[in-house]
Amino acid sequence: MALKKKPVTGMKDILPDEMAVRDYVIHLVKETYASYGFSSMDTPCMEHIENLCSKQGGDNEKLIFKVLKRGEKLNIGTATKEDEVVDCGMRYDLTLPLARYYANHANVLPAPFKAMQIGNVWRADRPQKGRFRQFMQCDIDVLGESSYVAEIELILATANMIGQLGFCDFTVVINDRRFLKAMAAYSGFQEKDFDDVFIILDKMDKIGAQKVGLELEALGYGKDVVVKYLTLFQEITHDLAGVKMCKEKLGDYLSEAAVTSMETIISCVESAKECAFQIQFQPTMVRGQSYYTGTIFEININGFPGSVAGGGRYDEMIGKFTGQNTPAVGFSIGFERIIMLLLEKGFQIPGRKEKLVYLLEKDLPTVELLQVFQLAKAERQAGKDVLIVPMKKNKKFQKEQLLAAGYKSIVDVYQK
After folding, report:
1. At 61, phi and psi to the nearest 5?
2. Distance of CA 353 to CAs 165, 383, 399, 401, Å?
Protein backbone atom coordinates (compact mmCIF):
# COMPACT_ATOMS: atom_id res chain seq x y z
CA MET A 1 0.00 0.00 0.00
CA ALA A 2 1.36 3.37 -1.05
CA LEU A 3 1.99 5.93 1.68
CA LYS A 4 -0.21 9.05 1.66
CA LYS A 5 1.60 12.27 0.79
CA LYS A 6 -1.18 14.68 1.79
CA PRO A 7 -1.53 15.75 5.45
CA VAL A 8 -4.34 14.51 7.68
CA THR A 9 -7.70 16.17 6.95
CA GLY A 10 -8.01 19.50 8.74
CA MET A 11 -4.26 19.91 9.14
CA LYS A 12 -1.81 21.46 6.71
CA ASP A 13 1.79 21.62 5.59
CA ILE A 14 3.30 25.09 5.77
CA LEU A 15 5.45 26.26 2.85
CA PRO A 16 8.49 28.55 3.38
CA ASP A 17 6.79 31.81 2.27
CA GLU A 18 3.98 31.38 4.79
CA MET A 19 6.39 30.15 7.45
CA ALA A 20 8.41 33.34 7.10
CA VAL A 21 5.27 35.42 7.77
CA ARG A 22 4.31 33.20 10.72
CA ASP A 23 7.79 33.51 12.22
CA TYR A 24 7.66 37.30 11.84
CA VAL A 25 4.24 37.54 13.51
CA ILE A 26 5.31 35.29 16.38
CA HIS A 27 8.41 37.42 16.91
CA LEU A 28 6.28 40.59 16.89
CA VAL A 29 3.79 39.04 19.33
CA LYS A 30 6.55 38.08 21.77
CA GLU A 31 8.29 41.44 21.49
CA THR A 32 5.08 43.45 21.90
CA TYR A 33 3.68 41.46 24.80
CA ALA A 34 7.03 41.41 26.59
CA SER A 35 7.02 45.22 26.45
CA TYR A 36 3.80 45.10 28.52
CA GLY A 37 5.42 42.85 31.14
CA PHE A 38 4.12 39.45 29.98
CA SER A 39 6.41 36.42 30.49
CA SER A 40 6.66 33.45 28.12
CA MET A 41 5.64 30.04 29.46
CA ASP A 42 4.36 26.78 28.01
CA THR A 43 2.29 23.72 28.84
CA PRO A 44 2.23 20.17 27.39
CA CYS A 45 0.17 19.49 24.28
CA MET A 46 -1.75 16.78 26.17
CA GLU A 47 -3.86 17.17 29.30
CA HIS A 48 -5.56 14.76 31.69
CA ILE A 49 -8.91 13.75 30.22
CA GLU A 50 -10.65 14.64 33.51
CA ASN A 51 -9.47 18.23 33.15
CA LEU A 52 -10.50 18.52 29.51
CA CYS A 53 -13.98 17.12 30.24
CA SER A 54 -14.65 19.26 33.34
CA LYS A 55 -17.56 21.17 31.71
CA GLN A 56 -15.57 24.38 31.40
CA GLY A 57 -14.80 24.33 27.67
CA GLY A 58 -18.33 24.56 26.26
CA ASP A 59 -18.76 22.93 22.85
CA ASN A 60 -14.99 22.42 22.59
CA GLU A 61 -15.35 19.44 24.92
CA LYS A 62 -17.22 17.67 22.11
CA LEU A 63 -14.19 18.15 19.84
CA ILE A 64 -11.41 16.60 21.94
CA PHE A 65 -8.87 14.32 20.27
CA LYS A 66 -8.74 11.61 22.94
CA VAL A 67 -5.64 9.49 23.49
CA LEU A 68 -5.75 5.79 24.32
CA LYS A 69 -3.92 4.36 27.30
CA ARG A 70 -0.66 2.67 26.51
CA GLY A 71 0.84 -0.77 27.11
CA GLU A 72 -0.58 -2.93 29.88
CA LYS A 73 -3.04 -0.21 30.90
CA LEU A 74 -4.93 -0.58 27.62
CA ASN A 75 -7.48 -3.42 27.69
CA ILE A 76 -9.88 -2.72 24.84
CA GLY A 77 -11.35 -6.22 24.93
CA THR A 78 -12.69 -5.94 28.48
CA ALA A 79 -13.53 -2.21 28.51
CA THR A 80 -17.19 -1.16 28.84
CA LYS A 81 -16.69 2.60 29.31
CA GLU A 82 -14.58 5.17 27.52
CA ASP A 83 -12.63 6.18 30.65
CA GLU A 84 -11.31 2.63 30.86
CA VAL A 85 -9.36 3.08 27.62
CA VAL A 86 -8.71 6.85 27.55
CA ASP A 87 -6.62 8.79 30.08
CA CYS A 88 -5.63 12.01 28.30
CA GLY A 89 -6.37 14.18 25.27
CA MET A 90 -4.92 16.92 23.06
CA ARG A 91 -5.52 20.39 24.50
CA TYR A 92 -8.37 22.25 22.73
CA ASP A 93 -7.25 25.69 23.97
CA LEU A 94 -4.51 27.24 26.10
CA THR A 95 -6.69 28.57 28.93
CA LEU A 96 -7.51 25.34 30.76
CA PRO A 97 -3.86 24.16 30.67
CA LEU A 98 -2.81 27.59 31.99
CA ALA A 99 -5.23 27.27 34.91
CA ARG A 100 -3.75 23.87 35.79
CA TYR A 101 -0.22 25.27 35.37
CA TYR A 102 -0.93 28.18 37.72
CA ALA A 103 -2.56 25.92 40.30
CA ASN A 104 0.54 23.73 40.23
CA HIS A 105 3.17 26.51 40.35
CA ALA A 106 1.48 29.48 42.06
CA ASN A 107 3.90 29.34 44.99
CA VAL A 108 6.89 30.16 42.73
CA LEU A 109 5.17 32.57 40.32
CA PRO A 110 4.92 36.36 40.75
CA ALA A 111 1.62 37.90 41.83
CA PRO A 112 -0.03 38.91 39.66
CA PHE A 113 1.34 36.56 37.01
CA LYS A 114 1.26 38.00 33.47
CA ALA A 115 1.53 34.96 31.20
CA MET A 116 2.23 34.77 27.47
CA GLN A 117 1.62 31.38 25.82
CA ILE A 118 1.96 30.53 22.12
CA GLY A 119 1.28 27.01 20.92
CA ASN A 120 -0.78 24.62 18.84
CA VAL A 121 -4.17 23.31 19.96
CA TRP A 122 -6.31 20.54 18.48
CA ARG A 123 -10.06 20.26 17.86
CA ALA A 124 -11.89 17.54 15.92
CA ASP A 125 -13.83 20.26 14.11
CA ARG A 126 -15.26 20.39 10.61
CA PRO A 127 -12.49 21.92 8.47
CA GLN A 128 -13.29 25.01 6.41
CA LYS A 129 -11.59 28.20 5.23
CA GLY A 130 -9.59 29.63 8.11
CA ARG A 131 -10.58 26.74 10.43
CA PHE A 132 -8.29 23.77 11.02
CA ARG A 133 -8.08 20.79 13.34
CA GLN A 134 -4.60 21.84 14.40
CA PHE A 135 -4.00 25.55 14.77
CA MET A 136 -1.91 27.99 16.73
CA GLN A 137 -3.16 30.24 19.50
CA CYS A 138 -1.41 33.24 21.05
CA ASP A 139 -2.71 34.04 24.54
CA ILE A 140 -1.92 36.61 27.17
CA ASP A 141 -3.45 36.27 30.64
CA VAL A 142 -3.26 38.06 33.97
CA LEU A 143 -3.69 35.73 36.94
CA GLY A 144 -4.18 36.88 40.50
CA GLU A 145 -5.45 40.40 39.67
CA SER A 146 -9.12 41.29 40.26
CA SER A 147 -8.81 44.94 39.19
CA TYR A 148 -9.96 46.12 35.77
CA VAL A 149 -6.39 47.31 35.24
CA ALA A 150 -5.79 43.77 33.93
CA GLU A 151 -8.47 44.14 31.24
CA ILE A 152 -7.10 47.53 30.17
CA GLU A 153 -3.58 46.11 29.78
CA LEU A 154 -4.81 43.09 27.82
CA ILE A 155 -6.85 45.18 25.39
CA LEU A 156 -4.09 47.76 24.84
CA ALA A 157 -1.41 45.10 24.27
CA THR A 158 -3.52 43.03 21.85
CA ALA A 159 -4.81 46.02 19.89
CA ASN A 160 -1.31 47.48 19.65
CA MET A 161 0.01 44.20 18.27
CA ILE A 162 -2.73 43.96 15.62
CA GLY A 163 -2.18 47.60 14.67
CA GLN A 164 1.53 46.92 14.09
CA LEU A 165 0.55 44.37 11.44
CA GLY A 166 -1.05 47.12 9.37
CA PHE A 167 -4.68 46.60 10.38
CA CYS A 168 -6.22 50.01 11.06
CA ASP A 169 -9.95 49.52 10.56
CA PHE A 170 -10.80 47.32 13.53
CA THR A 171 -13.03 47.49 16.59
CA VAL A 172 -12.60 46.18 20.12
CA VAL A 173 -16.06 45.03 21.22
CA ILE A 174 -16.65 44.73 24.96
CA ASN A 175 -19.40 43.47 27.25
CA ASP A 176 -19.71 41.97 30.73
CA ARG A 177 -21.52 38.85 31.96
CA ARG A 178 -22.86 40.94 34.82
CA PHE A 179 -24.64 43.18 32.29
CA LEU A 180 -26.04 40.13 30.49
CA LYS A 181 -27.40 38.65 33.72
CA ALA A 182 -28.86 41.97 34.90
CA MET A 183 -30.70 42.52 31.61
CA ALA A 184 -32.12 39.01 31.65
CA ALA A 185 -33.26 39.27 35.28
CA TYR A 186 -34.77 42.74 34.72
CA SER A 187 -36.78 41.41 31.78
CA GLY A 188 -38.22 38.50 33.76
CA PHE A 189 -36.09 35.48 32.85
CA GLN A 190 -35.27 33.06 35.64
CA GLU A 191 -31.64 32.51 36.56
CA LYS A 192 -31.84 28.77 35.81
CA ASP A 193 -32.55 29.66 32.17
CA PHE A 194 -29.83 32.32 31.74
CA ASP A 195 -27.45 30.03 29.84
CA ASP A 196 -30.17 29.08 27.36
CA VAL A 197 -31.20 32.73 26.98
CA PHE A 198 -27.61 33.77 26.25
CA ILE A 199 -27.09 30.98 23.72
CA ILE A 200 -30.13 32.28 21.82
CA LEU A 201 -29.08 35.93 22.19
CA ASP A 202 -25.68 35.04 20.72
CA LYS A 203 -27.46 34.28 17.42
CA MET A 204 -28.69 37.87 17.07
CA ASP A 205 -26.21 38.80 14.30
CA LYS A 206 -27.00 35.63 12.33
CA ILE A 207 -30.78 35.23 12.57
CA GLY A 208 -32.07 38.67 13.64
CA ALA A 209 -34.21 39.91 16.52
CA GLN A 210 -37.49 38.39 15.30
CA LYS A 211 -36.20 34.81 15.24
CA VAL A 212 -34.33 35.35 18.52
CA GLY A 213 -37.67 36.41 20.04
CA LEU A 214 -39.41 33.28 18.79
CA GLU A 215 -36.71 31.04 20.25
CA LEU A 216 -36.90 32.85 23.59
CA GLU A 217 -40.67 32.35 23.68
CA ALA A 218 -40.06 28.65 23.00
CA LEU A 219 -38.31 28.47 26.38
CA GLY A 220 -41.74 29.01 27.95
CA TYR A 221 -41.74 32.77 28.53
CA GLY A 222 -44.52 35.17 27.57
CA LYS A 223 -44.26 37.70 24.80
CA ASP A 224 -44.18 40.57 27.31
CA VAL A 225 -40.91 39.24 28.82
CA VAL A 226 -39.33 38.75 25.40
CA VAL A 227 -40.40 42.19 24.10
CA LYS A 228 -39.10 43.88 27.25
CA TYR A 229 -35.78 42.08 26.79
CA LEU A 230 -35.32 42.80 23.08
CA THR A 231 -36.39 46.44 23.49
CA LEU A 232 -33.40 46.96 25.77
CA PHE A 233 -31.02 46.10 22.95
CA GLN A 234 -32.78 48.47 20.58
CA GLU A 235 -32.53 51.38 23.01
CA ILE A 236 -29.02 50.98 24.42
CA THR A 237 -26.27 52.75 22.45
CA HIS A 238 -22.79 51.29 21.96
CA ASP A 239 -20.82 53.92 23.87
CA LEU A 240 -20.38 55.26 27.40
CA ALA A 241 -23.86 56.76 27.21
CA GLY A 242 -25.18 53.24 26.62
CA VAL A 243 -23.39 51.98 29.74
CA LYS A 244 -25.01 54.74 31.82
CA MET A 245 -28.38 53.99 30.25
CA CYS A 246 -28.04 50.38 31.43
CA LYS A 247 -27.54 51.54 35.00
CA GLU A 248 -30.53 53.89 34.83
CA LYS A 249 -32.85 51.25 33.35
CA LEU A 250 -31.68 48.17 35.25
CA GLY A 251 -31.37 49.81 38.68
CA ASP A 252 -30.49 47.34 41.43
CA TYR A 253 -30.25 44.45 38.97
CA LEU A 254 -26.87 45.85 37.84
CA SER A 255 -24.12 46.49 40.38
CA GLU A 256 -22.30 49.80 40.59
CA ALA A 257 -19.01 47.86 40.41
CA ALA A 258 -19.90 46.44 36.99
CA VAL A 259 -20.78 49.90 35.65
CA THR A 260 -17.61 51.50 37.03
CA SER A 261 -15.52 48.70 35.56
CA MET A 262 -17.02 49.09 32.08
CA GLU A 263 -16.76 52.89 32.09
CA THR A 264 -13.16 52.84 33.31
CA ILE A 265 -11.99 50.21 30.81
CA ILE A 266 -13.53 52.03 27.82
CA SER A 267 -12.25 55.45 28.94
CA CYS A 268 -8.70 54.27 29.67
CA VAL A 269 -8.36 52.26 26.46
CA GLU A 270 -9.66 55.17 24.40
CA SER A 271 -7.19 57.51 26.06
CA ALA A 272 -4.09 55.28 26.07
CA LYS A 273 -4.38 53.41 22.74
CA GLU A 274 -1.28 53.44 20.56
CA CYS A 275 -2.93 52.90 17.17
CA ALA A 276 -6.20 53.81 15.44
CA PHE A 277 -9.14 51.59 16.42
CA GLN A 278 -12.60 51.88 17.95
CA ILE A 279 -13.79 50.46 21.27
CA GLN A 280 -17.49 49.69 21.41
CA PHE A 281 -19.86 48.55 24.15
CA GLN A 282 -21.91 45.67 22.72
CA PRO A 283 -24.62 44.37 25.10
CA THR A 284 -25.61 41.49 22.79
CA MET A 285 -22.14 39.89 22.78
CA VAL A 286 -22.08 36.66 24.77
CA ARG A 287 -19.00 34.55 23.86
CA GLY A 288 -19.71 30.86 24.16
CA GLN A 289 -17.29 29.63 26.80
CA SER A 290 -19.15 28.81 30.00
CA TYR A 291 -16.17 29.69 32.19
CA TYR A 292 -16.45 33.48 31.67
CA THR A 293 -17.56 35.32 34.81
CA GLY A 294 -17.19 39.06 34.05
CA THR A 295 -15.77 41.21 31.27
CA ILE A 296 -15.70 39.68 27.77
CA PHE A 297 -14.22 41.17 24.61
CA GLU A 298 -13.48 40.53 20.94
CA ILE A 299 -11.69 42.26 18.07
CA ASN A 300 -13.45 42.57 14.71
CA ILE A 301 -11.74 43.67 11.49
CA ASN A 302 -13.94 45.52 9.03
CA GLY A 303 -14.85 43.33 6.06
CA PHE A 304 -13.96 40.04 7.77
CA PRO A 305 -16.80 37.90 9.17
CA GLY A 306 -16.22 36.82 12.75
CA SER A 307 -13.64 37.96 15.27
CA VAL A 308 -9.83 37.77 15.06
CA ALA A 309 -9.29 37.84 18.84
CA GLY A 310 -11.38 37.17 21.91
CA GLY A 311 -11.26 36.64 25.63
CA GLY A 312 -12.61 37.57 29.01
CA ARG A 313 -12.52 37.12 32.76
CA TYR A 314 -12.69 33.59 34.22
CA ASP A 315 -12.40 34.00 37.99
CA GLU A 316 -13.65 30.52 38.89
CA MET A 317 -11.57 28.17 36.71
CA ILE A 318 -8.42 27.97 38.84
CA GLY A 319 -10.58 27.26 41.88
CA LYS A 320 -11.65 23.99 40.23
CA PHE A 321 -8.06 22.82 40.76
CA THR A 322 -7.26 24.42 44.12
CA GLY A 323 -10.61 24.81 45.89
CA GLN A 324 -10.03 28.55 46.13
CA ASN A 325 -11.05 30.96 43.36
CA THR A 326 -8.33 33.10 41.82
CA PRO A 327 -9.08 36.15 39.65
CA ALA A 328 -8.00 35.58 36.03
CA VAL A 329 -8.56 37.24 32.67
CA GLY A 330 -7.11 36.61 29.22
CA PHE A 331 -7.10 37.62 25.54
CA SER A 332 -6.42 35.17 22.69
CA ILE A 333 -5.49 36.07 19.11
CA GLY A 334 -6.95 34.10 16.21
CA PHE A 335 -3.45 33.52 14.87
CA GLU A 336 -4.47 31.45 11.83
CA ARG A 337 -7.09 33.98 10.76
CA ILE A 338 -4.61 36.84 11.04
CA ILE A 339 -2.03 34.93 8.98
CA MET A 340 -4.70 34.19 6.35
CA LEU A 341 -5.64 37.88 6.12
CA LEU A 342 -1.99 38.94 5.85
CA LEU A 343 -1.29 36.43 3.07
CA GLU A 344 -4.44 37.46 1.18
CA LYS A 345 -3.32 41.08 1.08
CA GLY A 346 0.23 40.20 0.03
CA PHE A 347 1.88 41.17 3.30
CA GLN A 348 5.59 41.97 3.00
CA ILE A 349 7.80 41.49 6.04
CA PRO A 350 9.32 44.88 6.91
CA GLY A 351 13.07 45.23 7.31
CA ARG A 352 13.95 41.82 5.88
CA LYS A 353 17.64 41.13 5.42
CA GLU A 354 19.12 41.35 1.94
CA LYS A 355 19.35 37.85 0.45
CA LEU A 356 22.38 36.86 -1.63
CA VAL A 357 23.12 33.60 -3.44
CA TYR A 358 26.35 32.21 -4.89
CA LEU A 359 25.78 29.79 -7.81
CA LEU A 360 28.75 27.41 -8.05
CA GLU A 361 29.95 25.89 -11.28
CA LYS A 362 30.28 22.10 -11.12
CA ASP A 363 33.62 20.76 -9.83
CA LEU A 364 34.87 24.14 -8.64
CA PRO A 365 38.47 23.81 -7.34
CA THR A 366 38.92 23.69 -3.58
CA VAL A 367 40.85 26.97 -3.45
CA GLU A 368 38.05 28.87 -5.19
CA LEU A 369 35.41 27.08 -3.12
CA LEU A 370 37.17 28.22 0.05
CA GLN A 371 37.18 31.79 -1.25
CA VAL A 372 33.40 31.63 -1.79
CA PHE A 373 32.85 30.43 1.79
CA GLN A 374 35.06 33.24 3.10
CA LEU A 375 33.06 35.78 1.09
CA ALA A 376 29.80 34.29 2.37
CA LYS A 377 31.08 34.51 5.95
CA ALA A 378 31.85 38.21 5.50
CA GLU A 379 28.43 38.87 3.93
CA ARG A 380 26.64 37.15 6.83
CA GLN A 381 28.65 39.17 9.33
CA ALA A 382 27.51 42.27 7.41
CA GLY A 383 23.89 41.27 8.05
CA LYS A 384 22.91 39.47 4.85
CA ASP A 385 21.33 36.04 4.36
CA VAL A 386 23.62 34.00 2.11
CA LEU A 387 22.86 30.82 0.18
CA ILE A 388 25.57 28.74 -1.49
CA VAL A 389 24.24 26.25 -4.02
CA PRO A 390 25.57 24.33 -7.04
CA MET A 391 24.56 25.65 -10.45
CA LYS A 392 21.96 23.57 -12.31
CA LYS A 393 21.86 22.81 -16.03
CA ASN A 394 18.75 24.97 -16.48
CA LYS A 395 20.34 28.03 -14.89
CA LYS A 396 17.65 30.38 -16.17
CA PHE A 397 14.86 28.47 -14.40
CA GLN A 398 17.03 28.15 -11.27
CA LYS A 399 17.52 31.91 -11.16
CA GLU A 400 13.78 32.52 -11.62
CA GLN A 401 13.10 30.32 -8.59
CA LEU A 402 15.73 32.12 -6.51
CA LEU A 403 14.36 35.54 -7.44
CA ALA A 404 10.86 34.37 -6.51
CA ALA A 405 12.26 33.25 -3.14
CA GLY A 406 13.57 36.76 -2.48
CA TYR A 407 17.22 36.45 -3.51
CA LYS A 408 17.83 39.79 -5.21
CA SER A 409 21.61 39.35 -5.67
CA ILE A 410 22.82 36.29 -7.61
CA VAL A 411 26.56 35.76 -8.13
CA ASP A 412 27.72 33.17 -10.68
CA VAL A 413 31.00 31.57 -9.61
CA TYR A 414 33.00 29.94 -12.43
CA GLN A 415 36.41 28.29 -12.42
CA LYS A 416 39.07 30.85 -13.17
Report:
1. -70, -20
2. 18, 7, 19, 18
pLDDT digits (tens, 9 = 90+) for 27-74: 999 999 999 999 999 999 999 999 999 877 777 888 899 988 877 777
Contacts of 267 by beta carbon, 8 Å cutoff, 6+ apart: 240
Backbone angles phi, psi at 409, to 5 degrees: -110, 120
Q: What's phi and psi for 408, nearest 5 deg? A: -85, -25
Task: Determine the longest span between alpha carbons in the chain, in angstroms.
Answer: 93
Distance from C-alpha of 398 to C-alpha of 416, rounded to nearest angstrom:
22
